[in-house]
Fold this sequence. Notes:
Layout: H1 2-13, H2 20-23, E1 31-38, E2 42-43, H3 54-69, E3 78-82, H4 89-100, E4 107-111, H5 117-130, E5 136-144, H6 158-161, H7 164-168, H8 173-183, H9 188-208, E6 218-223, E7 230-235, H10 247-250, E8 273-283, H11 284-289, E9 296-305, H12 314-325, E10 335-338, H13 343-353, H14 366-369, H15 376-391, E11 395-402, E12 406-414
Parallel strand pairs: 3-4, 3-5, 10-11
Antiparallel strand pairs: 1-8, 1-9, 2-8, 5-8, 6-7, 9-12, 11-12
Amino acid sequence: MATERLNSILNHLSPSKSGLSAITQKNPDDVVITLAIRTPLAKGFRGGLKDTQLDYLIYSLLKKVIDKSNIDPQMVEDICLGNVNHAKSAYLVRAASLAAGFPNTSAASSVNRFCSSGLKATQDIANQISLGNIECGIAIGAEMMSEGGDRIDKPFHEEILRNQDAADCLQPMGQTSENVGKDFDISREAQDRFAAESYQRAERAQKAGWFDDEIVPVTTTVKDPKTGEEKQVTLTKDEGPRWGTTFESLSKIRPAFPDYGDKSTGGNSSQITDGAAAVLLMKRSTALRLNQPILAKYVGATVTGLAPRIMGIGPSLVIPKLLGKYGLTLDDVDIIELNEAFASMAVYCVNTLGIDTSKMNVRGGAIALGHPLGATGTRQIVTGLSECRRQKKKVLLTSMCVGTGQGMAGLFVNEVL
Length: 417
């Protein structure tokens, strides 16, 4: 500990560093991740979590956090849930955390920045730790898309609708995907080929057991839709990957949004999915004091905005913004988790940024695994860090587009080499 403190002082006294040397430094005040786990991702409305309530899913995962980390729950000062569709999510995470074993002195809240909510929760906890407001906290992302969601049941006020960007916030996500395909000439073939690769990578990863160290089992109850009979099941693996998927099989699928275009389909768009993911964060000095294993360093995250009608291209804008803040380029990044909301936006971002696809979504992405809205931001961290450990790589970049025209990205350094 004394050596860590001395190095920290010397680093402050020495000329400032930038780029890789800066983000890979180790200081006592660093925000670090000591546990990163997730549930299996289940098919919405017909999978193993279709009859599970969101509060139970949160409760189950938080219990796993305690069990796997062996941390004293008293040490956790705040828990932040990223969730999109449930209007009462703040109630649910508070009650679930108490039932899971956290004391009533551990606070809880929820945040919603659409598809980036899980990363937003991580950022909120990390910022509190960095500012010294708390020493230890949990970020969790969870979504039960099988429960449906709160939809806007009437248009915005007429004054708001006079602004075109504001009115475009009402466009369905499928429409925004078709807008990207049309505006930037992303062909149906290019989208299907990208989607086929996502499925094939997920299949390879699942067969090789690469997901095993990131997934924790969930025991729940499933009801037979025909007989009404309930039975207890334990989910241990993702349900989304469709083994044997090819470009040829995907090219036969009909367009999903024919009112808006003919390129986006159920095969090259992200799946409707239930699931949750969590990360345990604290100061490096706290982790060392508590003998907690340090998996990674949280470097930072940022957001940007753009035209709502082409919201999918958000990562192409926010990734350069985030890397620029730390004097980095994409060549400095080892593993990239880019959310595949639609193949249209993923292909655009790859082409525009010049991403080396051999290091992006190595285990497949949301097209093959699913996109439980509020969970994706944390799921990407869990999966990305696991892949960094497997490849013994350091720098992880995560990013996603965000509904209503936004983008978010996060940066992490793996320390298990």
